[in-house]
Amino acid sequence: MAKDPAFLFYSKDFYEGTRTMLPEERACYVDLLIYQHQHGPIPTDIKRVLLYCNGIAKATLIATLEAKFEATDKGYVNKKLCGVIEERAEFSNKQSINGTVGQFFKKAKGLLSGEKYATLKQSLSNKTNKEIFDLVSGREINEAMLEAMLIALLKHLANGDANGDIEDTNESKGGMGESAELQNQKPASAYSVEFEMWWNLYDKKVGDKKKLMAKWRKIPKREIGEIFKHTKRYVQATPDKKYRKNPQTYLNNESWNDEIIESNGKTNRTDNNNEELGQRLAETAIRLEYERYDNGEQTAEEFERRIGFKPVQRHLRNA
In Å, how far from its chain's centre is CA 7? Predict the structure, then answer.
C-alpha cells in the first residue's frame, strides 16, 4: 500500500498544546511530527536529527523531544500521532472494503433477475462488509459465481448461522482528539432469512407477517424446496396480484400442492428445466442433514424432526 501522504490536523488542539512553546520549539515540533509520519520513530542520535531540523539548537531539540515525544526501543514517538496514523489506515481499509462490496452488489444487480438479487441481498444481510469482502475479493463476478453463492446460502440456513448485519459505512475518519463509534446490531435468524426470501418471491405483501412467520416455522424442511418451486411458477401464472391468493391463504391451504392453471389453459405444477433454486435448496438441505447425521452430530430422531422422514443408512442410499 502506498504511503499515506497526509494526516488529519486539528488546529485548535495543536494551538492549545503548543501555545506556551517558543516559536523555534513549535517549528521543531512540526518538523519532528512530519519525520515520524513519513519515516517512523525518530532516531535517538541527536546529531543526525539536527540535520533534519535545520537551524534548531541542540537544547531546543532535546527540550521538544522530552516535552512531546516518548523514548522507545526504536526511537522517539508521539503517541497521539501514532493513534491518528492507525485510525487513518483503518478508515482507508474500510473505505476500500465498502467500495468493493458496493461494486459487487452493483454488478450482481445487473446480472441477476430482480427476484434472485433480492434473495442474494437477504442471504448476505447477516454478514459484515468485511465478511462479504472476503467472499468476493479477487473473484470474477459473473452469473455462475453468483448462482453458486445462492446455493451456498443453504448451509448457513441449515446450521442456523447468523453473524450480524452489514456494517454501517458511515465511519468516523479519525484524527487527533477523535474516536470511532461502534454499533452493535442483533443478528437475523435463519428462519427469518428463509421466510423473507419467500416473502419477496411471492410479492403480495398483505397480512400479518408475524403470524405468517409463525406458520412458516411449522412447515417441514422437506416442503421448503417444493414451496419455492411452486411459488415461482404460481407468481408467473398470476402477474396481476389481485388474482393471487393472499400469503396466509397460500400457506394455510398448503397451496404448493395445487396444480397451476396457466393462461393458455395448460396445467403445470413445477418447471424443472431451469434448475429451480427451490429444488437446489431442498436437495442441499437434505445432504447437509445427512452429513450431520453421519458425523454423529444429531440422532435419527433429530434428523426426522428436521427433515420429515427417517434417515436411510449410508450403504443403502445409492443402492
Answer: 29
Alpha-carbon separation of residue 22 from 28, 53, 56, 61 (angstroms):
10, 15, 12, 12
Nearest residue to 194 (alpha-carbon basis) of 208, 173, 174, 215: 215
How many other CB atoms sit within 10 Å of the CB of residue 124? 24
Nearest to 188 by CA among 255, 145, 107, 125: 125
List, for residues 110-155, the tens digit of each pLDDT value. Answer: 988 887 788 788 778 778 899 889 888 888 888 888 877 776 665 5
Single pTM value for the model: 0.44
Domain boundaries, the chain: 11-77
**Class of residue 277 by CB neighbours under 10 A (exposed 0-12, middle 13-18, buried 19+):** buried
Contacts of 160 (CB under 8 A, 6+ apart): 189, 190
Total Cβ atoms within 10 A of residue 130: 15
The span from the CA of 17 to the CA of 14, in Å, is 5
Query: Whose CA is closest to 176, among 8, 26, 35, 33?
Result: 8
- Cell 422437506 belongs to 222
Pairing of strands 260-261, 267-268: antiparallel
